Amino acid sequence: MIAVNMHEAKSRLSQLVADALKGEDVILCSNGQPRVRLVPVETAPIRRLTSHPELRVTLAPGYDPTEPLQPDETADWMR
Hints:
3 strands; 1 helix
């Protein structure tokens, strides 16, 4: 276990994070009292959606999605 005060943690933050990523227990203290524990973030694997033929969008001929909307095409809350 590594216990460091806040002032020391500011100057050693990169090393403390690396230690936490390796599984070391890192505690940040204030006035000698433990306040915070550094722990790695567990990320969920990225799930990719597969395309389904029934969910395809077809745009009308001549429609340009990059063209600004006309005032009559804009919803009231957007004005």
